Amino acid sequence: MASVLFGGNPVNTDGELPKTGSKAPDFKLVKSDLSLVSTADFLGSKVILNVFPSIDTPTCATSVRKFNADADRLENTKVLCISRDLPFAQKRFCGSEGLENVINLSDFNTGNFGKDYGLELTEGAFTGLHARAVIVLDENGIVKYTELVPNISDEPDYQAALAAL
After folding, report:
1. Strand 103-106 relative to strand 77-83: parallel, antiparallel, unpaired?
2. Cα–Cα distance between 9 and 35 in angstroms, integer?
3. Per the CB 3.0–4.6 Å rule, which of 40, 51, 72, 85 could disulfide with 89?
4. Mutual orientation of helices 87-97 and 58-71 as an angle, nearest 10°?
């Protein structure tokens, strides 16, 4: 288990991020049209997994905006923004913000992504939601970079994630 700060207090996750150099755990997540997408759908592309508790918090919204601004310049790269929000909330946010360069995916139905990636918060007000993290995968689904953001209210290190591509 790992620990992050939420509201100045330490809270635990249910595990650890995948190790750099390992194969990323398979996932199935829900798209805005309620269809499922899996790890296999992104093989052949580099992938940034921007994981956060909820699109309806300021820091989470900022991370989606910032990665969206960078995504159109990234060659052969998909940016997946993952939370436990309902797909409708994710679609509403991106639609109202005009964000078209990221792919919002939801883990609302099973929470398995959060568990498999060691990101499910196990205590505190956000219990069951995901900790803030960025994971970069290569074209073969191998983990190239991970960051578990130490304080949930802080933004991730965008430049380090982009440099890992």
Report:
1. parallel
2. 37
3. 85
4. 60
- Cβ proximity of 111 and 88 under 8 Å: no
Q: Evaluate whether 65 touches 97 at the Cβ level (below 8 Å).
A: yes
26-63 confidence digits (pLDDT tens) = 999 999 999 999 999 999 999 999 999 998 887 888 88
- DSSP result, the chain: --EEEETTEEEEBSS-PPPTTSBPPP-EEE-TTS-EEEGGGGTTSEEEEEE-S-TTSHHHHHHHHHHHHHHTTSTTEEEEEEESS-HHHHHHHHHHHT--SSEEEE-TTT-HHHHHTT-BB-SSTTTTSBPPEEEEE-TTSBEEEEEE-SBTTSPP-HHHHHHT-
In our burial notation (b when 16+ CB lie closer than 10 A, e otherwise), range 104-129 reads bbbbbeebebbbbbbbbbeebebeeb
Which residue in this structure is represented by tokens 């191998």?
142
Torsion angle of C-alpha atoms 130, 136, 140, 141, degrees rounded to 10 = -10
Catalytic residues: 60
Instruction: Determine the residue type at 68.
Output: N
Q: What is the pTM of this model?
A: 0.94
